[in-house]
Design a protein that fits this description.
It is a single chain. The chain is α+β, with helices and mostly antiparallel strands. The protein is 31% helix and 25% strand. It is built from 13 helices and 22 strands. It has helices at residues 13-22, 45-49, 86-90, 92-108, 121-131, 146-160, 207-216, 236-246, 317-331, 341-346, 352-356, 378-394, 443-461; strands spanning 2-9, 30-33, 75-77, 115-116, 135-136, 141-143, 165-167, 172-178, 181-187, 192-200, 221-223, 226-235, 251-254, 261-268, 272-277, 285-290, 299-308, 337-340, 368-369, 404-411, 415-417, 430-432. It has an eight-stranded mixed β-sheet. The two termini are 33 Å apart.
């Protein structure tokens, strides 16, 4: 039996930033446990060799030290406007202050100095967006790049060595609670680890585990909107009028037919479309996107996500998203689908021949040509097409017949734990942070959430914190 002051479950941005904060106290015994590999041992068959997604369990793109952030394109959103629910817990001003703190931490570990900042040119983009019935949310963004993200997170890991115990390939199986009191964690191998405080930050890949544990422990869960959609790929020149200024344009639209909210997400200028996996006993392949600091392609990609709020008796948004993604895998022979917009509108599936003669050549070579109308609900597909038409008014060429749609993209942060303003659960001394707990939706707020939980623990133990 091992005993710790604090155990952190999950080695993504939330877990790492919690560890960085706790490492300031020299008298705390802290364990950071991660089910995936160390960051230097993570590799992807699809990204590295252009192969087909097996898929791996766990998926090395989303699991392992560094979390999904290690293989993301490293967009740090420097505003509380987007990226999660932290302003609801902390207030706007406190969230902004912590974002600036986390940003300075990223900089100290090697993040790039350049920030894409809202400028006078944004007003004209906003005006044109409004004419197309789109809402632009301008935010400052620091783009680190996929390859540099790994370097930054590796530097954080190296800093933590000797200050925090880090164990990789070491999955948590369950949270131990006895008579309403937190006791620790049991690992998949049956090892019992005791602690005074626990921070669960399992990331999106661990959101399903988090929900199951919450239900087992009879914790209150709230359903966030379900985000399901496609990844769009167009020539770089089409998106350049906004990406050259903002890097990532945060645009939202309400469909005319169903009044559903549809938004752009994770815009990757001159980037690549990639595939990742949910992992687990029944892995599902989903689509995502990256952009690099140095390596550039001829295409820009971004997600279009339809946000839907379900009401009772529905209580499984993660299961719903997985169900739709699984349909795409079935039709794609285990992988993801790609379809030209023109083929979709003509009511036919895409074929290799049609893709080869298209202007936009897919950066994800292993995607299977197919028909997304056989996968996505009509309501979602109708909204996506409507938003593409609206985007085309702002950025001519987005709704070209050659535009590629990959499916499906699903964001598994759809259930949120009932938490205090310090991110403590209904079980005393059990904290939850990051995307897997449903409180954040991106690198920056996930990082901040780890800081929030760690600082509350430091306050309670009266730790002697180094300056």
């Amino acid at each position: 039996m091992s005993q710790y002051d604090v155990i952190i479950v999950g080695g993504g941005p939330a877990g790492i930033f919690a560890a960085l904060e706790l490492a300031k106290a020299s008298n705390l015994h802290v364990l950071l446990m991660e089910k995936g590999r160390d960051i230097d041992r993570r590799s992807c068959l699809v990204m590295d060799k252009g192969g087909r997604c097996p898929p791996c369990n766990p998926c090395h793109l989303v699991s392992g030290l560094g979390g999904a952030g290690a293989f993301s394109d490293g967009k740090l959103t420097l505003s509380p406007q987007v990226g999660g629910y932290l302003p609801e817990y902390l207030g706007w001003q406190k969230t902004q202050e912590l974002i600036e703190y986390a940003d300075s931490t990223y900089l100290s570990f090697g993040a790039t100095n350049h920030v894409f900042s809202a400028s006078s040119e944004v007003e004209e983009i906003q005006r044109r967006a409004n004419l197309a019935e789109l809402r632009l949310i301008p935010v400052d963004i620091r783009h680190v790049g996929t390859e540099r993200s790994r370097q930054v997170l590796r530097a954080m890991r190296d800093f933590l060595k000797g200050k925090v115990e880090i164990r990789v390939d070491f999955p948590a199986a369950s949270i131990i609670v006895e008579d309403g009191q937190l006791k620790g964690v049991e690992t998949r191998s049956g090892e019992r680890l005791e602690c005074r405080y626990l921070i669960v930050a399992p990331g999106r890949d661990g959101s399903d585990w988090m929900v199951k544990e919450a239900r087992r422990l009879k914790l209150t869960l709230h359903n966030n909107p379900v985000d399901v959609g496609v990844r769009v790929e167009v020539p770089v020149a089409v998106m350049a009028p906004v990406t050259d200024i903002l890097y990532e344009a945060k645009l939202e639209y309400f469909s005319k037919t169903f009044d559903d909210r549809i938004r752009t997400f994770c815009m990757c200028p001159a980037g690549e479309v990639i595939v990742d996996s949910t992992g687990g006993d029944d892995p599902i392949s989903t689509v995502n996107g990256h952009s690099y600091a140095e390596h550039k392609t001829n295409n820009t990609n971004f997600a279009l996500l339809v946000s839907t709020n379900f009401t009772e008796p529905f209580n499984d948004p993660i299961g719903y998203g997985k169900y739709i993604a699984r349909l795409a895998n079935i039709l794609g022979g285990g992988g993801v689908l790609v379809q030209r917009l023109g083929d979709l509108l003509e009511g036919r599936r895409s074929t290799l021949t049609r893709l080869e003669r298209g202007i936009v050549q897919p950066t994800l070579k292993c995607a299977t040509p197919g028909d997304l109308s056989c996968v996505l609900p009509y309501r979602f597909l109708k909204g996506i097409v409507e938003m593409l038409e609206a985007l085309d008014k702002l950025l001519p060429g987005v709704a070209s017949r050659h535009t590629l749609l990959y499916g499906v993209e699903v964001k598994f942060y759809s259930s949120r734990l009932e938490l205090s303003q310090n991110l403590e659960s209904e079980i005393p001394n059990l904290f939850a942070a990051g995307d897997g707990a449903g409180v954040t939706r991106g690198l920056m707020q996930a990082s901040v959430s780890g800081v929030v939980a760690a600082r509350e623990i430091l306050r309670r133990v009266g730790a002697d914190v180094a300056p």
